[in-house]
Amino acid sequence: MSQSPQPLGAPVVRREGRDKVTGRARYAAEHTRPALLHGWIVPATVPSGRVTAIRTADALALPGVHTVLTHDNAPKLNDPDDPILAVLQNDRVPHRGWPVALVLAESAEAARAGAAAVHVEYSSTEHDVVLTVDHSGLRVPDEANGGFPGLRERGDAGAAFDAAPVRIDASYTLGGLHNHPMEPHASTAVWEDGHLTVHDSSQGSSTVRDTLVQALGLGPDAVTVVSEHVGGGFGSKGTPRPQVVLAAMAARHTGLPVTLALPRRYMAAIVGHRAPTLQRVRLGAGRDGVLTSVSHEVVTQTSRIKEFVEQAAVPARIMYASPHSRTAHLVVPLDVPSPSWMRAPGEASGMYALESAMDELANALGMDPVELRLRNEPPTEPDSGLPFSSRNLARCLTEGARLFGWSGRDPQPATREEGPWLIGTGVASATYPVLVSKSAASAHAAPDGSYRIGVNATDIGTGARTVLAQIAASVLDASPEDVTIDIGDSDLPTASLAGGSSGTASWGWAVHKAATALRARLAEHGGTLPPEGVTVTADTGEETEQEPPYSRHAFGAHFAEVAVDSLTGEVRVRRLLGVYAAGRILNSRTARSQFIGGMVMGLGMALTEGSTMDPVFGDYTESDLASYHVPTCADVPDVQAHWIDEDDPHLNPMGSKGIGEIGIVGTAAAIGNAVRHATGARLRELPLTPDKVLPYLP
Fold this sequence. Notes:
By secondary structure, this protein is an alpha+beta fold. 55% of the residues are buried. The strands form 7 sheets. Strands 3-5-1-14-11-12-13 form a 7-stranded mixed beta sheet, with helices on both faces.
């Protein structure tokens, strides 16, 4: 057996890394079976209305085409928990791109040809797809995503703002954004002897199983969902998406295995997106920079199918001390695809506006923007009054300033030039809540000294297998190499989904508890195990049901240096630095990867990524990676992630906070603030593409 256990926090190499780079790792669409059928969706071509006729004869006449499912012949579902999954159940078209038919064929090519040969007739109705700040249908929702109240008020923010000697009243626009994981959404469904097995590209196969059980009217033991390897999700795979229901329906209807992999151009309409937001931030402060009033109002959209309101105003409730506060969300249902989670929902979009406004306030005061943030550190969470379990934002800011060389910065804008390039630097703060959900795990010890952990966690690229092995090994005083990890199968002990930066905290807590119980059982055996070994199970239901008496958040500081081409308006990021306070770092190698990945996604949000709604056709025009531009390595020449040592005993047995999402939160604002410093012009609409920047250059 292996010797010298590595301490928790060591940079252990991802254990499935070689499988991924050599192609041994199999993804949802790669589980082939004999007689496998391939599915291809027929999307609606009108933005609102009803299907009046579907003609399938031409499609069925094509070689290889097996079946065409429509609302007339598709299996009927029980009402799914999520209305976006009620596909092929009626003739309604709630938005352009909604599935109106599914062609099944012997190959993907034949299915695509068959889909093109399906003729659909519609009765169209008037559509409304444009979000405006004065839309007549706007209202305050009872709740935003996460169960946060749609409106929160403390004191009299309006009166305090009017009385403040220094005021910022600014509006910021963030267009729609789409998740584009490398692996598109895909599912392979097989029915055998009344049992349904689905390989699904999902961030939580337990949730997918429960959804299929309910929608298909099956017993809880009649469905197994496997999500062994997932090629990214970023929120878009956080809950079941239509392709998994369609694949299961098609397999049940035909009696044959079915694979359905969405073409990338269909994802914009089917799998969720970050809804556009129109945000207004009003900050009132004394001449010493101390805030007296904070107001953050967010206008956004949802679909006609269901209500999803990104909690973009929530970060302003906890970030800075102020005796008066008003944070509100306004939402209007439109004839658009349903929005959903995208990495750091709420914090990413809301903190862009808040941190941009803080920079504007620093400029109005003639104060260093780092110092302004330090002056407004709250002693407790402003919204709830709860003490912070730990809050080391100030340390992140000061340490980041030191590492970045902030003190040498000329605060005057538009003063540093290198040929045609205008150079600027910017800073922004970041926060993300500590989330944890009930999970269960099993721990087994074999007579040969090896261990096996079972937990239905999902690895979406974060290195879950590796860090869970480290957690178990740290409890068992073993080497991670002696610990086998089984994840990604709904037949394993039920665990929460991989989302909200909650995965490791939730699964790791269950693994830690199971490993602790196993260690106690092993002590009872005195070192001699029965031939079958010893197995224990544990769950964290009792622990996670308790309401914590603390406000628990990770914090960070982002610093950016940009160069703006004065001739073309192109913005290039020269340096990105993030410094984080995220509890105990459990694997320094995978943690750095997560921080950097978030920062790169934030760069895309700032400079390249955007989804434009076509008001005539009611769909997003950027429907592939040729038009929706995600950053590449060439866009990020120097990106660094650092963290401070943080001992927070109020989290979980590992002392860890989530790290997958905080990296994106402040990046866009830091880059926008750097562009303002470089050019002297304040741009308030993302992304900062050359066409937006150029008119403001000399």
